[in-house]
Amino acid sequence: MANIQKVRDVMMANFTEVDGVMKVSDALNMMRDEKINAILVKPRDENDVYGIMTLKDIARRVIGENRKLHEAHVYEIMSKPVLSINADMPIPYAARFLTNFNVSYAMVIENNAVTGMVSLNGMVNQRKD
User: Fold this and answer.
1) pLDDT one-digit tens code per residue, 78-103
2) What is the pLDDT of residue 3?
3) Can you tell me the distance from the alpha carbon of 50 to that of 82, in angstroms, rounded to the nearest whole number?
4) Which of 29, 30, 78, 87 has its CA 20 to 30 A from that of 20?
5) Residue 65: left if φ>0, alpha if ψ -120 to 50, beta else—which one?
6) Where are the domains of the chain?
7) What's 7-125's CATH class?
8) What ranges in 1-129 are assigned the alpha helix state H?
9) Cα four-point dihedral sign 81, 18, 31, 127
10) What is the pTM of this model?
11) Are 61 and 76 within 8 A, CB to CB?
């Protein structure tokens, strides 16, 4: 049987988590420094869930609304909840899953813990046929 590529094979194991109260300007500087396009937003407590903020969120909900980066907080513009995907899921199913929800990123879960993030871009660029 063919060796099927899984989410864990293309995920970004080095991902960034921030608090929702962080200013968007600070988060954007961090994203630029780390050369990433999305960050996970930590849950506030055990009853909360993860969120995600992408460059698209900043463009749409801050710049597009003529708001100031240093006045907006991450929690105001993030998407929540963020989709999660199992590290063992085969890439074709993962790609379908993300596109069905019209999102580009998901957090990767393994053994009930967040172990990374996966993007459609990563799935396409790291595809092995």
Assistant:
1) 999 999 999 999 999 999 999 999 99
2) 79
3) 6
4) 87
5) alpha
6) 7-125
7) alpha beta
8) 7-10, 24-34, 55-58, 74-77, 91-100, 120-125
9) negative
10) 0.88
11) yes
